[in-house]
Model the fold of this input.
Amino acid sequence: HPTLTDSLDVQAVDWRYYAPSAAGLSIWVGPDAIQHIRSGGDWNKVILNQTQVLTDIAANHLAQVSWVIPSGQASDHAESNDGSGPSWVASVVNALGSSPYWSNTAIIITWDDWGGWYDHVPPPSIANSYEYGFRVPLIVVSPYAKRAYVSHVTHDFGSVLKFIEEVFKL
Done:
């Protein structure tokens, strides 16, 4: 199946996917599940060392679109983390915030699940659909973001992809 990375490649928009190195790879390395990335020329854009993003920011070598995946310990997954998740996110945000990239950057911070055991708001029910479940936080850090704004609009993870498509006119 075509992916967003394919559209980025067609438009010559540089991308990187930073993830922790994993023996035999794992769920932490999503592009491993995409055959034409795993076995093709784009595999060199998958960086199996998530901390390399900090080096690339400092060296002004960050791709235009970058996904950064934490280690399991810094993942904020309930009952399976060491509490370093917020510090890890802050290190990436602070590195970008004090770099030349800041003036034209949007940092989108989200989680792959709700990270907890309770949500006081029931998930929306959409006929013939199963994609919505517990709410997942999303934080936008950018000089373009509205200060102290909380949106109550329902979105899904595809919204992030749509944002990238619109920004880069894919």
